[in-house]
Write the C-alpha cells for this entry.
Amino acid sequence: MDYNRNVNSLRNDADYSRRLLIVWLAVALSTVLGVGGVYWWRNQAQQREAQHRVAEAERRSVEVNAQARDLLEKGEFAAGLSAVDSILDLVEMPDLLETKYYLLHNSNRRNEAYQVMLKLLKRRPNEAPYQHTTGVLALNLSKPKEAAAHFESAVKLEPQNSNYQIEWANLCLMNGDLEKGRTILKKLVEQNPQCEECWFNYASAYGDHGALERAIEIFRQAADEFPNNFTHQYHLALALDAKNRQSKDQPALDEAVAHYQRSLELHPLRNSVAAQRIFEITGKAVPAELEALVADEVPLEVEGDLSYVRARINGVEGRFLLDTGASYVCVYSNAASHFKLIAADRVMETKTANGIIQVRVAYGQLQLGKQKLSDAVVCFLPEIKDDRNVGLFGVQFLQKFGAQIDVAHQRLVLNSDR
C-alpha cells in the first residue's frame, strides 16, 4: 500500500514538473515573442520612416538643386554645399552630386571634388565628360595613372573627340609611355587628317623627346597639308634649326630660314624668335612689315563720363567699365561661372577707382578685339547686381595689348606686341 502511494506521488510530482515546465516555456516563449515583436514593429516603423525621408528628399531634390545652383552663381559655396548635403545625406542623386562637385571645385577643395566625381561615375559610368573631368582632377592631384585611366575611358566612350585623345596621348607621354602616346596620335591624324592640332601634337611627341628627325618629317607633312598655318611653319623651322645648328648644315639652315620667314608672313610678330634667328643665320633683318604692329580697333561705348568696352573671357562676351584706377580685368563674383572661371589658390591686391582691395583671382583666356591673351589674371570683385555690366577693365591692363584710347573717335586702337 505504501509502495503504491509512493509511486502515485512520484507520478503526480512528475506530472506537476512537466506542467510547470510547459508553463515556464510558454511564458518564456511569450516573452521572447513579445520582445521580438516589439523590436520587429519598431524596426518596421524605422524602415517606413527612413523610406518616407528618402521619398521626401527625392521629391525636394530638383528644388534644392536649383537653389544650390543659384548659390553657386553667387559664390556662396558653403551655403550651396549645406543645401545639397541635406539631400545627399539621405540619398545620392546624380544631379546633386554634379552640383556638389562644382561647389567644391570652386571652393578649391579639389580632393573632395575628386571623391564626389568618383561617386558620380559609379552612377553614370558611361558619361565621357565626367570621365574627362575626373581625369583632369586626378592629374591636378598628382595621380597620373588614375588620370590616364579616366582619359582612356573618355576616349572609348567618345572616340570621335580629338581633344580627349590628345590629352590622353600627352599624358601617356608625360608618364614615359612614348610608344603608346605616339601611337594614339598617329591613329588620330590618320583618322582625322584635317585636325591641325592633332598634327602639331603628333610632331611634338617626337620633337619634345629628342627625336628631331621624325618630328621634322611630320611637321613637313603638316606644313604641306596646311600651308597657311603659321604654327606648323614655325615649329618646322625650330626643329630644322635645332637639329642642324651645331653641324652648321647650311642647306638645312636655309630651309629653316624659309619656314621662319613664311611663319612671319602668315603671322607678323614684333621681336620674334623667328626674326632673330633669321638675322643670326643670314645676317639680314626681316622686312619691316613682318615685324609691323597689327592695328586693331575696338569701339568704346560712352555714357556720360563713363566708357565701356566689350571683351571676351574664355570665349564668353561681356561689357566692362573702363576703370582708370584698376590694374587688372575684374568680374563681379556672381558672373564668374558665366565666364567659366574657377578661383585659384591665390589672393592679391588690386587698385580700383575706390582704392586698394584684396581679391581672389582666376586665370582665363582674355580676348579684346582680335587679340587674345592666354592665362590672363582675372580678379573677382564683390557681387553686384548690374544686368548690363559684368566687371571692370583696368586701363593699365590695356598696355598688354598696346592699346591707346582714341576719345575723339570713341575707340580703342590695339597694337599687337605678341
The mean pLDDT is 83. The longest strand covers residues 355-368. The chain has 13 helices and eleven strands. The longest helix spans residues 2-74.
